[in-house]
Design brief:
Blueprint lengths: L5 H8 L7 H17 L4 H26 L9 E2 L1 H6 L3 E7 L5 H11 L4 E6 L2 E5 L2 E4 L9 E4 L1 H18 L2 E8 L18 H5 L13 H9 L15 H8 L7 H15 L3 H33 L8 E2 L1 H5 L3 E8 L5 H9 L2 E4 L4 E4 L1 E8 L2 E6 L2 E3 L9 E3 L2 H19 L1 E9 L2 E2 L1
Helix pairs in contact: 2-3, 5-6, 5-8, 6-8, 9-11, 10-11
């Protein structure tokens, strides 16, 4: 299958509503045919062409604005567009002072273990990242894969910004790992003070190195323990939760039925009653749909909550392209047994055409707290109001409760299961 054009991928990467050319082209063609007989019909055809051109120009301006978002990093950045479109996104940074590789690598792993950090030369580090898969606006087409902007911004906030403040970053070059030429560090000035005089303790060269405080915190306490819950900001959240749980939310049919009932009732009081009945029925229908979907979404979470231990924010997990859950137990778990147990849970992969492990990543915070990242499902709501999206698998989690959580609870007593995740799927 032909991959999407770069323009389409960039529009999706920056979450820009795409311009729909199909209807405009079809309408312009019809009006052009009529214009052969009646030239006046060429006027609206020309207006449509001009409008489409204007919308396309707006798309390009929005993309250009998005590509400028790295200008706020505080140091020169090049190659952001190539990084977004790369098969394997990577970037090099050149520091003003040398630092120890293990400090940067351990700090990076604390944020996301999938990031590869390597030292190419003195003061030059390379970060290699995975892409994210964003649901295609056309349900029959595969996901659109682009660089992970959210993870890049988190890396800047927690790694690059502290390095810039404490060490200094000369420049950052981005692109595809296979095509990105290793960055060559610029020469020092002759009057530049020795590294040890500036930072002390050998500037990370000795075992007692004085690492930037923000990186020291990452090395010692690991990544942020709080689960991300990006799905809370999604529009039509309750309807999405019901689609993810294989249920059908109330919609226009309910509103129409209640409106018709109000119209019929009001019709008994004359023309004025018809209008009042129709308006009242419409308002009541909208209220019924909103409140009903809210209650039904809550019932989805309640359906998995009566297990003898609390399960928090199940709805957020259902809507996350990178579903995460933290399991906390009262007694320490046997790590080897737990890993063998969760790895036995298999799910069918449509993209690979085979059975794969449902649990994709395991991170231990302690013997009593573990974080799992599970494989998402591709959810296609039967309505145009909600685009297809990736989310946690409702059916697989029910299996997980029976085959894993029930056993863990019997042996180690689960204190709580916290759920959440990131909206964008990681490739």
């Amino acid at each position: 299958m032909k991959p999407p054009r770069d323009h389409v991928r960039l529009i999706r990467a920056f979450d820009i509503p795409p311009t729909k050319f199909g209807t405009a082209v079809w309408t312009t063609g019809v009006l052009g045919l009529f214009g052969l007989a009646a030239p006046i019909m060429l006027v609206p055809a020309g207006a449509i062409v001009a409008g489409v051109g204007g919308m396309s120009y707006t798309d390009r301006r929005a993309i250009a604005k998005g590509l400028r978002e790295v200008e706020v990093f505080g140091f020169p950045v090049t190659g952001y567009r190539a990084w977004l479109l790369a098969d394997t996104p990577a970037f090099d940074i050149e520091l003003r002072r040398d630092v120890d590789l293990e400090v940067v690598r351990t700090s990076t792993t604390a944020i996301d273990p999938s990031i590869i950090c390597d030292k190419k030369s003195p003061r030059v580090f390379r970060f290699v990242m995975r892409r994210v898969g964003l649901p295609n606006t056309k349900p029959h087409l595969p996901a659109i894969e682009v660089g992970d902007r959210r993870l890049l911004k988190e890396l800047h906030r927690r790694i690059l910004a502290p390095l810039q403040a404490d060490v200094g970053i000369v420049r950052m070059v981005m692109g595809d790992n296979a095509k990105l030429e290793p960055l060559v560090a610029q020469l020092r000035n002759d009057d530049e003070a020795p590294v040890s005089d500036v930072l002390g303790l050998g500037a990370f060269r000795e075992s007692a190195m004085a690492a930037p405080p923000a990186l020291q915190a990452l090395v010692h306490v690991g990544g942020e323990r709080a689960l991300p819950r990006e799905a809370r900001r999604l529009r039509l959240r309750n309807e999405r939760v019901m689609h993810a749980a294989n249920s059908s939310p109330s919609g226009f049919g309910t509103v129409a039925a209640i409106t018709l009932g109000g119209l019929t009732t009001g019709g008994q009081f004359g023309v004025t009653g018809v209008w009042f009945g129709m308006a009242g029925g419409f308002i009541a229908g909208v209220f019924t749909v909103i409140s009903g979907n809210r209650q039904n979404a809550k019932s989805v979470a309640r359906a998995v909550s009566n297990q003898g231990y609390p399960i928090e924010d199940y709805g957020d997990w259902l809507l996350s392209g990178r579903p995460l859950m933290d399991i906390e137990t009262v007694r320490p778990m046997n790590r080897q047994w737990f890993l063998e147990t969760v790895c036995r849970l298999q799910a069918w992969s449509v993209t690979m055409g085979t059975m794969v492990s449902w649990v994709e990543d395991v991170t231990w915070f302690s013997d009593q707290e573990v974080r799992l990242e599970t494989r998402p499902s591709y959810i296609q709501p039967p309505t145009s109001r909600i685009e297809p999206f990736y989310g946690g698998s409702h059916d697989m989690f029910r299996r997980f409760m029976v085959e894993v959580l029930a056993v863990v609870h019997r042996q180690y007593e689960i204190r709580v299961v916290k759920m959440g995740g990131y909206v964008d799927r990681r490739i």
